[in-house]
Amino acid sequence: MTPALAIIPPDPDARDFAAELQASTVACRLRHERLGTRRALTRGQIEQVAERFAADRRALSGSKRLLDTKDPAFRAVMRVHAAATDYWHSMTVPFPEAGIRLIRRERVQEFQQRMEEFRTSLVRSARQLQAKYAELRERARDELGSLFNDGDYPPRVDDAFSLDWDFPSVEPPNYLRQLAPELYARESERMRGRFEEAIRLTEAAFLERFGELVRHLAERLSGEADGRPKVFRASAITNLSAFFDEFQRLDIGSSSELQDLVSRAQRLVQGVRPDDLRSDFTTRTAVAAGLAEIQDVMDGMMVARPRRAISLVED
Prior knowledge:
Layout: H1 17-24, E1 25-33, E2 38-40, H2 43-53, E3 63-65, H3 72-91, E4 92-94, E5 100-104, H4 108-144, E6 162-166, H5 175-179, H6 181-221, E7 224-225, E8 228-229, H7 235-250, H8 256-269, H9 274-279, H10 281-304
Antiparallel strand pairs: 1-5, 1-6, 2-3, 4-5, 7-8
Protein name: DUF3150 domain-containing protein
Keywords: Coiled coil
Coiled coil: 119-146
């Protein structure tokens, strides 16, 4: 006789991390618009290139750069976009839907205010780029020669850049509760699965980032290069400290093993200054050994996790 399977009821005291995450966060989306700075070569231009090199034009493609993207005025605009994206990441955790992340409800107002500051900076930088636009066009005319085309250039560029954000609903609409209760229940269960996946993505993102920082610091502290200790920069410590702060803000408590590793690393480097690691061999050796132990555990955790291709930013 086949033995009956024992059914273990769920622990009523176990934390429902997916429900906690769903109740404590809202979806947050960031969108950029920016000036396109490249144009594809025309068919005639491709044919000229093919003829020059005795190539089949069907095997060729190409584009031209319309503006010098390394010019300080252009780079200033792009720095604002990059800083806003970095801030969005620092305030949110992943969600399994392209372009959407989750932000804690109590931090929405703080996020809103900071993004308004980024938008103001973007407008200011775009105006400065507009003031230099004519000069950049003339430079492009000289650089592109016969490839230059006035039609590729809009009259203004300061209105080509924008920064927008919103908080889209990821919950099933309430009207379904009355109109189609079964559909509402299915959608609610599907959304619960999304939040369970968000927990896994968050753990994986933290583990990967933490692993990179620990691995880099351990590598800098151990071994020698050309008979001398490897170069150690203060950023290796400050970046790890920044991670501790971010982990404390965003961790949802679903992985006690990861929490333990982060706490161990934090205790290991607590009070340790970059100069201590440069000049004190005992401190340097002790920290390197402790990090190596943490890294070994993390390597095992990462091997046990399925590899995922995750895209978290929509530009």
